[in-house]
Amino acid sequence: MKNFLKLFLIFSLPLVIICTSVEILTRRIPNVYKCKKDYLDKHSDSISILFLGNSCVLYGINPDYVNKISFNAANPGQPLFYDNGILKKYQNNWNNLDCIAIQVSYSSIFCEIDFFRKCKYNIYFGMHTSKKLAEYIEVFNSAPIVLIKRIYYYYIKGYSFTPCTDLGWCSYGDSKSSEGLVKTGKDIAWVHSKSINDKSFSENIIALKSIFEFAINKGVKLFVYTPPAYHTYNENLDSTDVNQMIAILKSFDREHSNVAYANFLYDTSFSEADYYDAVHLNEAGAKKLTCKIDSLINKCPQNIWK
Amino acid sequence: MLFNSLDFAVFFPLVFILYWFVVQRNLKLQNLFVLASSFVFYGWWDWRFLALLFSGCLVNYIVGRLLSARNDKPVRRLLLWTAVVYNIGLLVVFKYLNFFIGSFVSAFTFFGLNLSGSSLNIVLPVGISFFTFQALGYVLEVYRRNADAERNFISFSAFVSFFPLILAGPIERATHLLPQFSKKRTFDYTKATDGLRQILWGLFKKIVIADNCAIFANATFDDPSGYSGSTLVLGALFYTIQIYSDFSGYSDIAIGVSKLMGFDIIRNFNNPYLSLNVADFWRRWHISLSSWLRDYLFTPMSIKLRSLGVTGIIISLFVTFILCGLWHGANYTFIVWGGLHGLALVWDVISTRTRKKIRKQTNSTLYNSISWFFTFSFIVFTWIFFRAENFIQANNFIYEIFSGSFFSIPYIIEPSTGRTILPKTIYFLILLFLFFELYGRNQEFSFAQIGKNWKRPLRFALYYSIIIAIYWFSGPGQQFIYAQF
User: Which candidate, A63, A66, B360, B399, has a CA 20 to 30 Å from the CA of B245?
Assistant: First the structure.
């Protein structure tokens, strides 16, 4: 028995050491989630406009163009469930919050979160949304090659990882995806359509209602919007689902006095030059969208806030 | 808690250490510890269903004790039927009620009568089909006086809820596993290392092979019209590999874990895809279920119907396999799957003489090759019904297979995106796995002897390679298929 345990420990030790080292090293590398959590820990009480959403917001909203103190708390692939989680995590800190600008898109309302992103909220935001132990460990949630590359580039090559600006915006610059708007539109729509999930939809609807309630109770305005997307993406989505989403959001808009809804999905003022790929805006597009939203929130409140 | 989860990787070493270092001196305490661990393991999924598990242990224990105490036939029969009604009743309520309600409503609607049947929101307790059959098997053995009723409630409950087996079997026999709870278990180094190797191989089968094959199979089953007939055949073949590596992987882990705890568990698979006929397949596939059905359903039924001669056997076979299909799930696709196997077995029975004649006149290698080919093709075909979510999906899949592109070269690229469905390395790993399975076909599990006699550094290197492969090439985490039944 003792011999068995001794050999088993000798065998397991290298594995445990390697896994633990990779886990520690990975967690020390700056990433979007960590940066946002750090910022919110320090400054959540001073934020006036909070932007929530997924990568469309992460790349599409640049708080530098907003007049009031604002922060982009969006993360890649973040569904409404986690928007609500972030909001609730700091619920006692939003002392100056005036408006929550939340993006509701096809993917954020219908789709399941990618399995490898769940752990980020558990690890970096301390949300404890999972029952599974593996969802609290980076090593079990990222492709090994990704982890190795990150460690290699950060520690050995000495690359500085700056995941986002101080105010939470990530930039593609003014570049365009090499794959083109037609291909990415089709591909991303296919991926999103594949990850539709009834459970996620109901979870996200509950989360959205919870955000509405929170805004009402706090006396905070809620600006809900659907972000612009290139027509090649929209055309490849199930139109019934898209219409259902818009109808839900419009009904929320009608029913709540502190809620305003704007749909940029078919906004033709966003041209080819504004997109990085079919769903993500580049720097110019981000500026355009941010200014539009800022003016809707601040400049003509009588039109949108009933 | 699933075997391929980190939770289990933490849970089991703790159980193992406490089991062999703290409670090993007292058998009663050891059994109590097994029971407690099993309840923690099961309750990890949903603690509310522990009451169901406990009641299952209690009812079957009491019936077993009463059966051993009574000699009068009517009372014994009444007790037996009490256990049958209770165990099958659990299955009916938790597994089939919505299916029956839906079927009745559809049947009445078909005949022009509109009934409104509201389905109930019943959660299917995991492993219910396995632990109820294990408990029912015990009562049947006590009734037949093949086994003594267990006096100790803790031992009996540990037998019913034994955590390595509770989610997806193997369905153990009271005559084999229960006595092991009454004997002192001593640590056996060879058995333990053998168990570890079997766990490792089971994890590789599940995480690398089954979960990756699932990607290809799911792609074709989700959109049959998007693929050529030959690609759909490939999709069905991938599912064939998936279900085998998933379920036999689970069984390997269950048996390996049991070995580490000093238990011997019956073998559940014996190279089923090398079968030469369907009857042979059922002697090699999910052996614990097929032998359960043979002993407690088919044999008694065919004895009852023996006056009908071959017709009696045919009826018994067909009924057994329809019920076998239904055991897997409340869906017509499972009934069709079971029915097809039933029909194939009926064909086996009625064509026995003709086949014997042909066999005598033909070269045995040629005969066996043809038999294997037809049997394997039939099994792959029936898995289509097993995998399909409904009858329409199965029909579409089969229709598209024969849509004209059957003889085209299958493509392994997603038509809508142009991406490859699986990375090339995975195809290589699948081939490697099939080679190992074939190479080790005469062993208890195919990895049993590979590298066993190598020097330690080399052996460790082999194990590390498998662990790295499991980590590096893990497919998207899927539930064990049979844990859903």
Answer: B399
Provide, as residue numbers in chain B, all residues whose Cβ is less than 8 Å from the Cβ of A140. 6
Tens place of pLDDT for every residue, chain B, 485 residues?
A: 888 888 999 999 999 999 999 998 899 999 999 999 999 999 998 888 899 999 999 999 999 999 999 889 899 999 999 999 999 999 888 887 777 777 777 777 767 766 665 556 677 788 899 999 999 999 999 999 999 999 999 999 999 999 999 999 899 999 999 999 999 899 999 999 999 999 999 999 999 999 999 998 998 898 888 888 888 999 999 999 999 999 999 999 999 999 999 999 999 999 999 999 999 999 999 999 999 999 999 999 999 998 988 899 999 999 999 999 999 988 899 999 999 999 999 998 888 888 888 888 888 889 999 999 999 999 999 999 999 998 889 999 999 888 877 777 777 776 666 667 777 888 899 999 999 999 988 888 888 888 888 999 999 999 999 999 999 988 776 677 777 66
Q: Testing the interface with A: which of B455, B470, B471, B479 to mutate, by most A Cβ within 10 A?
A: B471
CB-based contact, B189 to chain A, within 8 Å: yes
Whether B220 and B343 map to the same domain: the answer is yes
Same-domain status, B220 and B176? no
Sequence-distant (≥ 6) Cβ neighbours of residue A97 within 8 angstroms = A47, A48, A49, A50, A218, A220
CB contact under 8 Å between A1 and B189, yes or no, is yes
Round to whole Å and give the CA distance between B284 and B272.
5
Give the catalytic positions of B in this structure.
328
- CB contact B476 to A (< 8 Å): yes
User: Does the beta-carbon distance from A187 to B417 stay under 8 Å?
Assistant: yes
Q: What total of structural domains would you count in chain B?
A: 2
Closest Cα in chain B, distance from residue A140 (Å): 8
CA quadruple B39, B42, B44, B49: dihedral sign: negative
CA angle A193, A200, A215 (to 5 degrees): 115
Largest CA distance in chain A: 78
Is residue B1 in a domain?
no
Question: In terms of CA atoms, which chain A residue is nearest residue B471?
Answer: A144
Residue B219 counted as domain residue? yes
Distance CA B165, CA B265 (A): 9
Chain A residues touching B476 at Cβ < 8 A: 115
Same domain, B102 and B197: no
Chain B residues in contact with A14 (beta carbon < 8 A):
464
Q: Is residue B354 one of the residues assigned to a domain?
A: yes
The residue written with tokens 């990568």 in the block is A55
Domain boundary among B186, B215, B231: B186
How far away is chain A from the Cα of B339, in angstroms, using its nearest Cα? 32
CB pair distance less than 8 Å for A4 and B193: yes
User: In what side-by-side order are the strands of the sheet with A259-263?
Assistant: A70-72, A49-52, A99-103, A221-226, A259-263
A134 → closest Cβ in B5, B193, B416: B5
Q: In terms of residues, how long is chain A?
A: 306
The answer to whether B472 faces chain A, any CB pair under 8 Å, is yes
Contact map slice: B 443-462 vs A, CB within 8 A: 460
Please give the model's pTM, rounded to 2 decimal places: 0.85
| H or E, element range at B245 | helix B229-260
Domain match, B46 and B172 both: yes
What's the domain range around B158? 6-186
